[in-house]
Amino acid sequence: MQVAVDAVVFTIANNDLKILLIKRKYPPYQGQYALPGGFVLLDENLEEAAQRELEEETGVKNIFLKQLRTYGNAKRDPRGRVISVAYLALISADQKLKATTDASDARWFLLSQLPALAFDHKEIIQDSLENLRYEIQTTNISFQILPKKFTLTQLQRLYEIILDKTLDKRNFRKRIRELGILKATGEQEREGAHRPAAFYTFASTKYQPLSEKINVFLK
Amino acid sequence: MQVAVDAVVFTIANNDLKILLIKRKYPPYQGQYALPGGFVLLDENLEEAAQRELEEETGVKNIFLKQLRTYGNAKRDPRGRVISVAYLALISADQKLKATTDASDARWFLLSQLPALAFDHKEIIQDSLENLRYEIQTTNISFQILPKKFTLTQLQRLYEIILDKTLDKRNFRKRIRELGILKATGEQEREGAHRPAAFYTFASTKYQPLSEKINVFLK
DNA sequence: ACAAAAGTGTTCGATATACACCCATGT
DNA sequence: ACATGGGTGTATATCGAACACTTTTGT
Fold first, then answer.
1. Which run of H or of E encompasses B182?
2. Which residues of B29-40 are buried (b: 16+ CB within 10 A; e: fewer)?
3. Which residue's C-alpha is at the least distance from the C1' of C26?
4. Pick from B3, B42, B212: which is nearest to A3 by CB?
5. Which CA distances in Å does B146 have to B14, B18, B159, B194, B204?
6. Strand C nucleotides within a 7 Å radius of protein CB atoms
7. Residues of B170-192 as b/e, b for ≥16 C-beta within 10 angstroms?
8. Could you tell me the CA-to-CA distances from B10 to B7, B19, B69, B87, B132 in Å, in that order?
9. Among all residues of chain A, which has the CA nearest to that of B81?
10. Are the CB atoms for A96 and A104 separated by under 8 Å?
11. What DSSP character marks residue B88?
């Protein structure tokens, strides 16, 4: 029996939620897109395998990965029995991807415009999106996606895009303030013909649950 | 690489939360207790494997299993590389276990009095308990543990034991009523020198999230 | 009659939601 | 001066938490 890992990597670019896919070079599903991933080596932990495969296939390395769940339907892989442990990640859109060569074709896709996908990767992505929505409301995983310094509007946009709904600016800021997870840097974004926005950073950069409060922006 | 499944099966007996363990007959960890589980066969799905192993080792069969997470540390099994997909279940305490023979030794253990455990099963149980607490607050998984007909006090006791805290009777009943997941059967429990309690059943017996509300009894 | 668990509503505080205007800048 | 996005506070509604007495039965 073979054990694989797959990474569902989300980012936000141009106000849209995107996902990182690679084009498969070999059968099965040759030429189709799939989640980055591959087989786990005998001496590496599961998450290490996911990090390695991600770097090999897309150039993205050393990011925070959260285990999603394991897909083990007996017929999910035409090559034989392969189970796959899926990982979830959020990264900043300015990470460089490996240049597209004949050995590597990694691209961002709009969630609303996914190509046909190999294996059960469509299902994995569905599950991931649900999980991502849960994560951003209960943990500080959003740290992963924003630049070191960011404005409150950028942060709010992130939530709006992932949750796919608009949020009230004042209420959003109030809750973020209450959570106490941000620090003002004192600097300002000076861009565009409007009042400059204050820059913030996260007080902690370790993945963790948001204080005691679950359910921060549900409903 | 080998793929195993393990089942963390909880029950409640005598007002205590218990967990189902088996004594290992062969090395490694021979004679120590472990979660019921074993290797996945080539042609069965992961959950099927968990059901099968559970029945073989404990006599418990055909119960609701929820995937917890996958444990894949490279050194977790001294025999070599084995990853294990853990499943969580709640069952009623009156399920008969396989009689203890030299081929089978399955027993319930108080969570507070666990023996030394094989592999990383201690960690798996810790994670399961957290997950169980989350599940009973966000899904109707408690269906699995109660008899077909039960009293509101029995249901409340279940929550109190799993959450390890007391709940207010009136608030508890109000919320359960609001959730609309119970039906009164019209029958009464006539036992003990006190007012008889009304029997209820669950309106649906399928595992599902509790309406829109997450976070039903947190805090 | 008494012991034992079942059953039942209301008040109060905390949290979530709805909502509109002024500010600082670039052009 | 005007267009653009940044920034701020309050009032109301909803939800969660605290709380005590009456009812029905068996002995």
1. strand B182-189
2. beeebbbbbbeb
3. A193
4. B3
5. 13, 14, 11, 22, 13
6. 3-10, 16-20, 23-27
7. eebbeebeeeebbeeeeeeeeee
8. 9, 5, 16, 11, 9
9. A42
10. no
11. E
Q: What are the two backbone dihedrals, phi and then psi, of residue A96, each rounded to the nearest 5 degrees?
A: -75, 135
Which are the contacts of A151, defined by CB distance < 8 A and separation ≥ 6? A189, A197, A198, A199, A200
| End-to-end CA separation in angstroms for chain B | 42
Q: Write out pLDDT tens, residues B52-95.
A: 999 999 999 999 999 999 999 999 999 999 999 999 999 998 88
pLDDT confidence of A102, banded at 50, 70, 90?
Answer: low
Chain B residues lying within 8 Å of A40, measured CB to CB: 1, 72, 83
- A153, A158, A161, A163 alpha-carbon torsion, rounded to 10°: -110
B46, B69, B218 ranked by CB distance to A214: nearest: B218
Nearest CA in chain B to A68: B69
Residue B169 CA to D22 C1' — how many Å?
15
Q: Is the pTM of this model over 0.85?
A: yes
